[in-house]
Amino acid sequence: MIAFQGENGAYSQEAIFETFGVETPTLACPSFDAIFRAVETGQAELGMLPIENSTAGAINQSYDLLLDHDLKIAREVIFRVRHALLANAGTTLADIRRVYSHPQALAQCERFIAEHHWEPVVAYDTAGAAKQLAASPEKNAAAIASETAARLYGLHILARDIQDLPNNLTRFFVIAQNEPPRAEKSKTSIVFATRHVPGALYNCLGEFASRGINLTKIESRPDRRVPWHYVFYLDFEGHWSDPPCRDALVNLLSKSSFLKVLGSYPAG
What we know:
By secondary structure, the chain is α/β, with parallel strands linked by helices. Helix content is 30%, strand content 34%.
């Protein structure tokens, strides 16, 4: 069982099916926090957590939850988001006057919507927009959601790949209670805080640069315990137990005020 946030038909669920197979049992959760609780309590074995989008950027709540909980990152998944235009049977493109979807999906399809002079209407969720449209049919309305949502709710697909940018990718972390087996190509994610002195971050990052370790991402978030202090989320190539990575982490521990390894996992 793999937990995800949203209604059935959400892109997170579609990412599960693409990664693990369409017969994979899934658990719809109302929030990101509920994903963590489902995995911690054993209600689900894994959780599919979106961490960033190639056009919209980082998902801050996901980063905060990784710090707050003690689950491990077991895998990285890169999923291509393909928005589809869905409508009830009998509705044509010429009939449509308004389009329902999550604000992010509406923004990612802004050009397509504007070209057709449709009114964008905000919904709480992409799959939720499809579910609502199927439950309360409107002749002049459509929803932007996944093709999985169309199949689940009996809607027709009027157009595929309507997103403005072709490379609309979402990066997911698969979270679990235990560390995954070591992979041939690994990445590691950590979070740390620096001391409040000049050059602190420079010195911390130097532990990786001096050992030729490639950093693939750095993201800062406010430290919610101390106003105007920050924590840094860092991804780098390699497994934490590789000698250069291990040495870098040991030295980083002595130079930082806090360090947590979120996991070493197969790279997407």
